[in-house]
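Task: sequence design from structure.
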């Protein structure tokens, strides 16, 4: 962003927020990979327990970082020359790496936590400046080690898969982040620029792939594919950022006037809803119904795939495509509930005209959200019968 003179633009803060959330999700994936390696399976209970364990670890150390570490640094501030501060900072990071590894988490999680804690201290900016040469050194070592682990034969064997995954990553992230930004109330320009600025996978993909390979919970070819996709998407991202504004102008020229009006009304409605109980209204009219319908759809899909399908396989062992038939029956049974999610509407009787107007102005974002939830549920239903 600094090289392209975009650091002060409105969409940059949104991009940084998305990147932070991606890093947190990557940290959770590191924890889950470790759990899968230990238990050789991943159930809903294991996922919940791993998430709670991660939450406890983060809260505990962030509390220590907020209330204990600043006091210690203040006590020894007079002795903290630049060299001493550098050694103390590196020592704290390595200490947290050892602690995280000893309690079953990834060393990357420990480094991430201590870095976040140090960044919030009074000396955060000073520590960041002092650590820049160290960061450059270890970045070089990291990427050299990444390159040494790449098997060129694997890259050649999976050339088309790498191209497909790179295209899927770029297009998927542009669409998903652009739509997410629109739903959150951002204007179309900022949404498109945000989507085209985050169309890459970062260094955490290397760490996740390396951890999965070392724990023997992922295939050996995943690592070079992850590295290749990351390299391609990292190379294309500056060009996507550079041409994000022309892409917005092209999209704006192609959009129908009615869609532009819907977007404008929705943006204004979201901007003016900070002092109104809009979320409560949306939850009462849409959220609760979608949750109930989603639970019913999940129950039907799991019941048919875990109970009905095995019995049908035993009853008709030589009947072809029994899974396709069972999937079709599941879609038919879940159809009314999926339809309610896709096209469900608010009941007008309990509300005033002003309240209904507010809901109408928010229909664009609500429709996108319903489409996303419905599509995920349909994909889940089909995935239960496709292996």
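Answer:
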């Amino acid at each position: 962003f600094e090289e392209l003179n975009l650091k002060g633009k409105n969409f940059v803060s949104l991009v940084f927020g998305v990147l932070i959330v991606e890093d947190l999700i990557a940290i959770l994936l590191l924890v889950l990979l470790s759990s899968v390696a230990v238990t050789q399976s991943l159930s809903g209970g294991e996922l919940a327990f791993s998430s709670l364990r991660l939450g406890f670890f983060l809260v505990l150390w962030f509390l220590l970082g907020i209330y204990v570490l600043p006091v210690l640094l203040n006590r020894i501030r007079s002795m903290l020359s630049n060299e001493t501060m550098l050694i103390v900072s590196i020592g704290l990071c390595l200490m947290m790496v050892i602690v995280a590894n000893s309690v079953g988490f990834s060393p990357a999680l420990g480094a991430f936590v201590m870095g976040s804690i140090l960044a919030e201290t009074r000396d955060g900016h000073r520590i960041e400046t002092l650590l820049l040469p160290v960061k450059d050194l270890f970045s070089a070592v990291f990427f050299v080690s990444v390159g040494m682990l790449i098997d060129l034969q694997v890259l050649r064997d999976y050339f088309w898969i790498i191209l497909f995954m790179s295209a899927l990553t770029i297009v998927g992230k542009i669409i998903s982040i652009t739509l997410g930004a629109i739903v959150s109330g951002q204007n179309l320009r900022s949404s498109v620029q945000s989507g085209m600025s985050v169309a890459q996978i970062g260094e955490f993909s290397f760490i996740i792939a390396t951890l999965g390979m070392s724990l023997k919970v992922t295939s050996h070819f995943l690592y070079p594919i992850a590295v290749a996709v990351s390299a391609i998407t990292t190379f294309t991202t500056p060009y996507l950022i550079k041409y994000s504004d022309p892409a917005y102008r092209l999209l704006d020229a192609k959009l129908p006037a009615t869609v532009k009006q819907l977007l404008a009304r929705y943006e204004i409605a979201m901007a003016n809803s900070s002092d109104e109980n809009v979320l409560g209204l949306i939850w009462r009219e849409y959220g609760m119904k979608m949750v109930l319908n989603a639970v019913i759809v999940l129950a039907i899909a799991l019941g048919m795939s875990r109970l009905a399908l095995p019995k049908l396989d035993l009853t008709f062992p030589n009947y072809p495509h029994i899974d396709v038939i069972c999937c079709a029956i599941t879609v038919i049974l879940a159809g009314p509930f999926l339809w309610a999610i896709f096209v469900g509407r608010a009941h007008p009787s309990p509300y005033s005209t002003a309240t209904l107007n507010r809901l109408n102005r928010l229909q664009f974002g609500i429709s996108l959200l319903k489409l996303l939830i419905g599509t995920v549920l349909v994909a889940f239903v089909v995935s239960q019968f496709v292996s």
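The mean pLDDT is 79.
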